Structure formats: C-alpha cells, structure tokens
C-alpha cells in the first residue's frame, strides 16, 4: 500500500516560524503582518480520522498571500491525505502555467486535475483504494487594480519557492531556526515525527506527481495612493516579494461537497461556498439528468454529497467541479472559517461567527469551534481553520 498502515489520515505536522516560512507546508508565521491562523481537529465519535488540512503562508513567495484548505474524507483516508499533501502543489503549478488566467478558471482546472489524479490512484490500487473527499479551499491573492500581479515583473524565484512542502522541508526547517512543532489543538509537541513513516507516505504519494462561480459583493476598499514599489527580500535561498502598499487583497474560495467557508464581515456571516448535497434540488436534477437517482438524500442511495474529489466509481454523477467565489477584502472583513460538515451539522454560519468574533487568537477560536461541535454531539470528524485578517502595514 502506498500509505502508512494507520487508518487515520495524516496532515503534515504544523511548525512555527517568527516570520519567514519559505513556502513550507503547514508552517505558521507567528508575526505575519497581514493574517494569523489556527487549526483544530478531532476524530469525534468516529473510530478513525479521515480529515486532512493544509496551508501555506506567503503562498508562491508573495508576502500576504495564503493558501488554506480542509479535506473531509469518506470511505477511507487516502483521498483526503493525498490532497492534504499535494493539492497546493497542483494549484501552484496551474498558476505558473497560466499566470494571466482568471483565478476561478485556475481553481477549476486544479480541482479537475486533482480529481483525475485520485481516480488514477484508485484504478492503480486494484480496488484497494476507493475513497473520496469533499474539499474547501481558500486562496488569498495579492493583486493590482487589473486583477494581475504586475509588481512581480522579473522577480527571481527559487526551487524552494516553486515547490512548497517539498522533500527539502526538514533541511529548510532546521536552517530557518523555527523548530517548534505545533499540534493542531494548541499544545506544543516535541517534533519527533516518524521519519520512516513520513518518507513512505511521501514516496508513494509523490508517484502521482503532483464549475460554477460567483463574485461576492464587496464594499469599496480604500487603498493607499503611495507609489507602487516592489520590495524583494532574499533569505535562505528564496525570494519573498513584498507587494506595493496599494495592492488589493482578493479571497478566492472553491469547494466541492459540503465543507464550507464563512467570512465574518463586520460581524455578519457571509457564506463563500455552496453545499453540494443530494437534498439540494439543483444538484438532484443534475444527477437524474445524468442517469442516476437520489434516494433519501443520497446519490444512487450511497453518497450524501453530489460533488467530491475521488470517488471514481461514481464519477459519472459525483463530479469534482467546484463552486468558486471571488471577494475583495476590505477593512470590515475580520476572519474566515473553513470547516468540514462535522462543525456545520451542529451550528449555523451566523452563530459560528458570533461564537468566536471576540477571540482575537485564531488558534483559540478554532479550538472553541471544535469544542462546540464535540459538546453538541456531532457524529463526524471535525476540522476547523480560522484565519484572522490584519490591515497590512506599509513596511510589511
């Protein structure tokens, strides 16, 4: 088997750095100028954990960008674990292949490519792997007024910047002096992760290599009229580009299934995703038009979600096409919650926002949402990411 023997999905251990993360997967920047984040997870009442998560701070080596995702597996851990390790690399590759294409199109292509990779993995497993996962992803992108990144110009990039979370993670981690492994629910670990188990997963997974949309309304976002000067910082072999202070921050969300993203804007919950469930009338019509049926809210009487990554045996009906939204962030935008349905089954969007709005530390906020789900007897695994936005300073 190309995975560890454990039935539980494994996400890459969370580490911490003061500021520079060097594109490393699941490394928190504790003094980041534009956002902070926290992650909490628990298997709940289930026997196994089939959720995975991932994030990259300063995604694609641009200060202030970020990638965040939750993957909720079913019928096994494999699809979710693979996505937690490699979805961000597929997105990065798609961005570099077509840097001027609309981001919703790039997200759509990424979802389809990942879906095809998972289907191929299932086929090559001789029936041993047949899992799927729902997904919610958020890409916080720094742009100019034309929706492009003209400030990049000919800024050099390095192999480390182009491949976040690569096999050089351990070496880079030691060089950066970060050293702290953060478990997801708030306590520090000793950082002693099994190298043999990690390398087995990495080698096996690496063999695979690497829509509908809407634009959310946004209040007018005041931006500085200061000159557009690009700053570049070279550190540890990578180049971090600091965009001009008059850049826009645009949040692109994409999801397949019932994992959800909710933005808190001036205390109000704004859902940025769409729940793809068999109980949804539009999704049920799509299923029946394709020759399938929905029984008791389940596709062909089996699966409760109508879109997912993987699930190759039902791909004719359960597609991987994401729903995407585009939202320009403004001063009223406080934080974003990404979570699987283990949270949303027991709390609505507005109540979730109100529960943690006054908690400035996103790790504490994510832990409180997790505790709420468990105390209200959710029957599923729970994974929660909270990203709290800051107003960027001019000298970030």
UniProtKB/TrEMBL annotation:
PROSITE patterns: PPM_1 (PS01032), PPM_2 (PS51746)
GO molecular function: metal ion binding; protein serine/threonine phosphatase activity
Keyword annotations: Hydrolase, Metal-binding, Protein phosphatase
Biased composition (Polar residues): 148-179
PPM-type phosphatase domain: residues covered: 36-389
Annotated Low complexity bias: 206-230
Region (Disordered): 148-239
SUPFAM superfamilies the UniProt entry points to: PP2C-like
Cross-referenced Pfam families: PP2C
Family: Belongs to the PP2C family.
Name this polypeptide is given: Protein phosphatase 2C
Source organism: Macrolepiota fuliginosa MF-IS2
